[in-house]
Design goal:
The chain is built from 13 helices and 13 strands. By secondary structure, it is an alpha/beta fold. It has a domain at about 1-155 and about 195-225 and about 275-290: NAD(P)-binding Rossmann-like Domain (Rossmann fold). The structure holds NADP nicotinamide-adenine-dinucleotide phosphate. NADP nicotinamide-adenine-dinucleotide phosphate (NAP) binds near residues 9, 10, 13, 33 and 155. This is NAD-dependent epimerase/dehydratase family protein.
């Protein structure tokens, strides 16, 4: 198959593109050409790279044409955020299968546990609303292409900082755990995170594209099997670094004053959702089982951080 992957040099593409090449497909990656994959892989030498700033090409009205010029049999769109983007793309396609990346955030807060793909969405932010609307267009409103959506949780892996046990991304939280096992957590530390390894996210995109009969018109969650509380995550890392945990729990106002507004916004975004999503449908329909547990995912990310 000729497969075009939009945004294929980041977290997901690092794993997805080489796996498609190894399956024998001719792969074209569309990106601006600024990023390089997180890991080296000889498979990249046979990938056709097309340099394009999507937003600029969309503004110029040429993005769809650029994709159709690649003559894809299948398209994986790893960075679609609005219905306008979805329409520009599908208007240029003609019956191919399209796999698009959504987000568990399109559901907003967790309402039942575990969250399944058919739970009513109550998006909180413009990002959430965009992803939910893209799903409506691709899976329910259009008939130009057959489409599937893949909804990852917090994408993690070696090469970048995962969401830390305080719910934001600052490396100092890891450094403190490494130094003496201490962490300062919001509230009672009982909010949940649910990381997912980028390799597992890539694999669900691949399976959705390779099984269009089963995946067409369907959304699939991809998450670690278990969620983890902030306090259990901090404890896991403290012990990983050889310390007993020393956890301090801060009232919200104190936490905000200590970490600053921009970090607190990220923490708030994570803890207000406290995700625990199910992958039963992804397992049942696509035959997927994750390679990485929650613990393996966060430890592989932390162990690869160079400057702790
Ligand atoms: N991060 C998470 O935890 C998370 C969770 C749930 C869902 N998601 C979804 O996952 C998708 C992101 O996947 P990812 O994490 O693999 O992405 P990523 O690591 O952020 O990589 C982004 C990719 O898109 C390319 N890109 C960025 N801006 C571009 C532009 N203007 N035009 C063309 N290409 C551009 C980048 O290459 P260049 O910079 O070289 O252009 C790169 O290939 C999004 O749909 C996001 O909503 C992410």
């Amino acid at each position: 198959m000729n497969i075009t992957v939009i945004g294929g040099t980041g977290h997901i593409g690092t794993y997805l593109v080489p796996s498609l090449v190894r399956d024998g497909h001719a792969v074209t990656v569309v990106s601006r050409g600024r990023r390089t994959p997180y890991t080296q892989d000889d498979a990249w030498s046979s990938v056709t790279m097309v340099a394009c700033d999507r937003e600029q090409a969309e503004a110029d009205g040429v993005f769809g044409r650029l994709i159709s010029q690649q003559e894809p049999d299948g398209v994986i769109d790893l960075r679609v955020f609005t219905t306008q983007q979805a329409h520009q793309l599908i208007d240029s396609l003609d019956g191919q299968h399209l796999v698009a990346t959504g987000s568990i955030w399109s559901w907003g807060r967790t309402s039942v546990v575990p969250m399944t793909e058919d739970v009513q969405k109550e998006p909180l932010t413009a990002y959430d609303r965009g992803k939910a609307a893209v799903e409506d267009v691709l899976l329910r409103e259009q008939s130009r292409v057959t489409a599937s959506m893949v909804h990852p949780s917090h994408i993690s892996g070696p090469g970048w900082a995962a969401v830390n046990p305080a719910g934001y991304f600052d490396l100092d939280v890891y450094r403190s755990l490494k130094r003496d096992g201490s962490a300062r957590l919001p509230l009672d530390g009982m909010a949940l995170l649910q990381h997912v390894h980028a390799a597992d996210v890539a694999e669900v995109h691949r399976l959705a594209l390779m099984n269009p009969g089963a995946s067409a018109g369907e959304a699939f969650n991809v998450v670690a099997e278990q969620s983890i509380t902030l306090r259990a995550y901090a404890t896991l890392l403290a012990r990983h670094f050889g310390h007993e945990p020393q956890l301090t729990f801060l009232p919200w106002a104190d936490f905000v004053a200590e970490v600053g507004d921009s970090n607190a916004v990220m923490t708030h975004d994570h803890i207000t959702r406290s995700p625990h999503f199910s992958m039963e449908k992804t397992r049942r329909i696509l035959g997927f089982s994750p390679r990485y547990s929650e613990e393996e995912t966060v430890l592989s990310a932390v162990d690869a951080l160079a400057d702790l």
